[in-house]
Input
Amino acid sequence: MQPEDVSRKVMIVTGASRGIGAAVALSAARRGYAVCVNYQRRADAAEAVVQAILDAGGTALAVRADMAVEDEVVALFETVDRELGRVDALVNNAGILDVQTTVEHLGAERISRILATNVVGVFVCCREAVRRMAPRHGGRGGAIVNVSSMAARLGSPNEYVDYAASKGAVDTLTIGLAKEVAADGIRVNGVRPGLIHTEMHASGGEPGRVDRLKGSVPMQRGGTAQEVADAVLWLCSDQSSFTTGSFIDVAGGR
Output
């Protein structure tokens, strides 16, 4: 299959220095997108993703922004405006979790911190994208893909109920925004990864979590970041032109 001709469209991928975000950025570049690789802390990893894209003849730049800080998100979009042009696709991938625990041990600070990045940050990114994609603002439509989680449906009991709740909010945002902006030619969809082999599990204190739980997956294995990226890129492409307010579960049937 030949790469889709996107005529130098611009994509922003949040949290793109590693894992699913990096896979999305690299896949988008192969399809002809100019890519903004957003990161918060891992400048070296983000620059490595950018360099891989440049080495393959693509266009990319790394931009630091903390999704929990509104001014930094706005500055991110303004940098893309100047350096790459008006955004055509936004992939809200950045997300955080904390060490596994139960609800009875959760503190308000942790909950607020999780929601600030995973929910408020996604809202602000969506707002900035709509302000650029909508025809009434001089845009030409576009695609937004929110990377949610199967945790939104399963609840992550005894581990990450706060994280799961944040992803449930992202799912509701996806449905509501899709209906708001459909007439503007902006499609909004979500991807719900299941147990995926990424570094994120180490953030929760269990690097081997996927291997421990893979027996609960009907396909009897964890997924890869690339498998999630392929779903994301399909939702950004013209092949999904009549799809909005929908979700793809990349979870092996779990």
